[in-house]
Amino acid sequence: MMKAFTLVTLAAAVVSAAPGQLLSKRALTPQDIDPRTGCPGYLTPGEFEFPHYITQISKSQPDKAFGPQYFGVFTPNDISSLFTFDIPASRAGANCTLEFLFPAQSQLKTSSYSYSGGGSFFFTGYAPGSCPDGQTTYNNQPKPGPFPPFPPVHMEPGNAYVIDIGPCFVGAGTCVAGMTSTTDTSFSFFQDYDECPIGLYTTYSYL
Ligand SMILES: *[C@@H]1O[C@H](CO)[C@@H](O)[C@H](O)[C@H]1NC(C)=O
């Protein structure tokens, strides 16, 4: 079936990309610098959500609850990060794009991240309305979503990755969450928006 983070459940007919195909990747070039902020990225004020809850799970510590976190943290085959978005009911008529902004370190002013490894990442969606909380662990994850995980997405610094596009009504008025994991990469970043945006965002669009 198609790619599915969480926003897509009913989007099969809307999205025509091949199974598992990354919808798009674009380099964050100097031309992409937002003149208002001096930062790379594509976030239009008022037209995006940052994750309202981030936590981790660990396969090797399957009963550890990490609680609320500000960093996305990944280690090969062990620590995965869960990102939750709250989609207001008022966005039911928009399209939601799930995007990972991954500026190069040289494009960031003050924030930093650590990244090493092959860059293979997997995105899996949970069922809309079933989202992580302080009790979430590897053994106690939110309910699985209706679609299988994506095939790996190769992510490396200096690019923005569109993971998924689908109608927002699937999650409007509730939360939508997903897990991002890796088999080969150690990666830790501060999910920032105040300085230059980095990390996972949901953006709204209207044709
Ligand atoms: C959402 O995307 C679909 C597919 O591209 C398009 O047909 C539809 O008009 C879009 N809806 C809005 C509100 O932009």
UniProtKB/TrEMBL annotation:
Residues 49-194 form the Ubiquitin 3 binding protein But2 C-terminal domain. Keywords: Signal. InterPro entries: Ubiquitin3-bd_protein_But2_C (IPR018620). It comes from the Eukaryota. This is GPI anchored cell wall protein. Residues 1-17 form the signal peptide.
